[in-house]
Amino acid sequence: MTTVVAADPLAFDREHLWHPYTSMTEPTPVRLVSGARGCRLEVDGAWVVDGMASWWSAIHGYRHPVLDAAVTEQAGRFSHVMFGGLTHEPAIGLGRRLVEITPEPLERVFLADSGSVSVEVAMKMVLQYQRGIGRPDRTRMLTVRGGYHGDTFDCMSVTDPVGGMHAMWAGLLPQQVFAPQPPRAGSGSAEVAAWATTLRHIADQYHHELAGIIVEPLLQGAGGMWPYPPACLRVLREVADEHGLLLVFDEIATGFGRTGHLFVSELVTPDILCLGKALTGGYLTLAAVLTTDAVARGISGSEAGVVMHGPTFMGNPLACAVASASIDLLLGGDWQGDVRRIGDRLATGLAPLRELPGVTDVRTIGAVGVVQLDHSVDVVAATEAALAAGVWLRPFRDLVYAMPPYVIEDDELDRLVGGIRAAVEAG
Question: Does 124 participate in catalysis according to the annotation?
Fold first, then answer.
């Protein structure tokens, strides 16, 4: 047994706790959070504006009384119960809400426990569906370059194999089929048509092996914050239908209003939809996979007859209760106006940064603002500069970006823009 001597908590953290994408032997600095409220975090004793919404999940900010009450009330009943053979009102209520607010064909709901797991489940559904309708040889997924779908193994296999974060695992992952990255949002019909021609050619070439198509619709997230035209989604739907493929939309980052649409799936309806992140307003880990009755029947026709997945914390009551409260809170307010206000203010505030040395692009979509550099960001220096300006940011690769809570005030947005500028100049 290891004896741990009481000491500075940050010293213990540095010696014993891994953080995301961080070395254990040469860790970069972490900051101690001791409080959170509204759109602000108390970091190392100072209150700063959170530009990340805790990796895009805390859309209502922190310590929202409605969400606090939902968790407290459910904890007073029971915090967890296995979902195998049992059910409960929080899960039933959340399932009902999800069916009501997503496109009509999506009426079967699988409650997973994280975004990556929801993608794993979706890919299992695709494969089991193809087996269930008599096409077991269809085992590969078609996707596009520049995507990111999570850190578990099947998720890594559909993440960009060269420019993504998982290139070191290439020889161990299932070999999927990759089409070019879609053209940039705002591209003309000629660029979209050229991309579509290439995509169709690849689908034609591999159609006998393909089971489904998976993409992040309209905005690629952690792969590079890349927005692309809605017309590309219609092409994907057509290709899927032509070849008998299931179309999967990974809306873990884009769902619940982030792009200006409640769900991008309102524009083009997929066969399977993955949701997460903002689902619980950032309170607890939870994800959902929605699919159609036709897909469910296909899965039931496979040799297993059931979806071969069942997490211990599937349908966790605390998470389901706060997710329902978060959805009601979102739909009961002016989320569209808030997203539009954030996007407009970010677009105006970030535009001058195009003139800074090293900046190659500034782009916005919905409540997302992105500054792209011509070099990898010095994350430590950029973070220090942003904190000095009163803002918490977490740059990555060549990007300094923000996806703030929807409840952020205009003065906080102005401070956020200043923090982004400071990070760009330092990074």
Answer: no
